[in-house]
Amino acid sequence: MRIDALTLEGFRNYDRQALTFHHSCNVIYGENAQGKTNLLEAMVYLSCGKSPRARADRELIGFDRDKARILGQMFTRDREFRTEVELFRGRRRKASVNGVPAKNNAALSDVLHTVFFSPEDLMLIREGAAARRRFMDLSLCQLRPRYGEALAEYHRLYEHKTRILRDSGDYPQLLATLPDFNRRLCQVGAVLIHYRARYCRALAEYAAQAHYECSGQREELELRYQTVSTVHDPFLPQEQLFAALMEHQQSHEQAEIASRLCLSGPHKDDLEVLVNGRSARQFCSQGQVRTAALALKLADREIHKNTMGEYPIMLLDDVLSELDPRRQEYVLNRIAGGQVFITCCENDRLDTLLSGKVFHIRGGEVLA
Ligand SMILES: Nc1ncnc2c1ncn2[C@@H]1O[C@H](COP(=O)(O)OP(=O)(O)OP(=O)(O)O)[C@@H](O)[C@H]1O
């Protein structure tokens, strides 16, 4: 799997830029705030229809533009693909693959998978559960089309339910609609738990191996998927997951109405990380946290490889400079075999370390 060419028009600080890439390694360097991350962000968008950092698509459109266009030429499963996305202010985006309209994000993920790794991810372990849920969701949306659909529906229902609870003080009659929302949230929630449990099991296996190697065989990493307390086994059939979610929901109904908050459901899931049997979040040193985060990202890459039969595109956004030489070397050795994009501020070391193509970015343009 590789991206051969990318064209950006009106995307973030790119006015119009066409780029062709090396099949293996691409180093993108430049000073701060020149557009290096924007470039990687466009590639993530092509792979899943979402930005890893923007909350709304309109943030991706150039400040003084009405629309943005991202066009990628990819090579996957021995075939060429052309994915095009157009984003507009105030109207729905348009996306197509080889000229055929893409119905949803899954149609984009069918062509391209990316694993995006940025300095913020180095604190994935220390942050609250939301960061680890985002990590699982971004990956699962690319891996499993049904998961992406279920997650989108869950978010819609959750928003709606939140509004009902919030407004129920002034309009108590709204509460009559709550049982229908709760029921559907539990049905869709069961789908999310089904996929998350399997993903976390695979992630745990690969991440343990990577962490063990990267720590010089000194540390053991364990991952535990945590979901709603009445779900004693997340691998049970979905009907049983649904029943367990309903049980939790019913026991929290009064508390939800009193607090006007959604208290029950997999929107509070987490992935607990332990190193040598202790909570990494509480007890790990900065270095251990980095190794664990690195292990999660490398494990994610292996899962994509197993699912697609090809390595996903690895996007390393300024992370190498944050790692010590031993970890840098480990990452660079582990990611050989697929296409990789690496951004950095200085080009003094990487082009000697890696062979491939080097791009110098300034003000949303690639300098010759
Ligand atoms: N919608 C937008 N329209 C135009 N410019 C934008 C838009 N969003 C962000 N920018 C600009 O893009 C630049 C940031 O680009 P980017 O995040 O890619 O930086 P970077 O080169 O990765 O920098 P760093 O090394 O600091 O991470 C900023 O100058 C910002 O003002």
UniProtKB/TrEMBL annotation:
Its main location: cytoplasm. It comes from Vescimonas coprocola. One of its GO terms (cellular component) is cytoplasm. Belongs to the RecF family. The gene is recF. GO terms for biological process: DNA replication; DNA synthesis involved in DNA repair; double-strand break repair; SOS response. Keywords: ATP-binding, Cytoplasm, DNA damage, DNA repair, DNA replication, DNA-binding, Nucleotide-binding, SOS response. The lineage of its organism: Bacteria, Bacillati, Bacillota, Clostridia, Eubacteriales. This is DNA replication and repair protein RecF. InterPro entries: DNA-binding_RecF (IPR001238), DNA-binding_RecF_CS (IPR018078), P-loop_NTPase (IPR027417), RecF/RecN/SMC_N (IPR003395), RecF_2 (IPR042174). Gene3D superfamilies: P-loop containing nucleotide triphosphate hydrolases (3.40.50.300), RecF/RecN/SMC, N-terminal domain (1.20.1050.90).
